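Aim 2 progress. For UDP-N-acetylglucosamine pyrophosphorylase, the working sequence is reproduced below.
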Amino acid sequence: MKELEITELFDLNHTLAAPYLSGFTYPWEALGGLSDFIIELGRSLPKEEYEEIGEMIWAAKSAVIAPTASLTGPAVIGKNSQVRHCAFLRGSILVGENVVVGNSTELKNVILFDNVQVPHYNYVGDSILGYRSHMGAGSITSNVKSDKKLVVIKAGEVRIETGRKKVGGMLGDFVEVGCGTVINPGSVIGRNTSIYPLSMIRGYVPAGSVYKRQGEVAEKSED
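Predicted structure tokens for this construct:
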């Protein structure tokens, strides 16, 4: 299903992961080798712009990282990004440029494109967040099914086996997620879509939509 493909969800000009992601059709396929890619990327970064601040943790010299943040490698923190008070970065993390990782936000095995904001009490695991996507306070990606079975991507009648136990959310460019929302395992949200607060997302939400509640998804107005 073309709507679920990387090229439909993301503008790869806004991430250092572009060469890596270009090798896959669907975004969740990139989760398995992400750690190795980040290590390779970190070692190749220009030393005049980035420094290794911990074991396999590379941060741009222009990034601002709170002393109370907890970082475990491999991780790359991009230019002019902020990692705020008590953020918890658990490894296999690529943070793009001008990103905000907020207070008490937890990240694990993720790609955050440039200008992403996860600013308040968010959990983002086994997920990819596109350019300028934003998660409201307390919104999370759930990455493991309650029955612990392998995650299946579902979009209408389409079913795609991921072969993975852990798959979070794939958020296209310019996605806005309202506060307190739960994005269930294997959910895919198309570009330029807005999600109402306190929503429970499951499956595929089309690009250019306003998600109000399950079964009520409207086309976004251009006004």
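The longest strand covers residues 106-112. This observation will guide construct design in the next reporting period.
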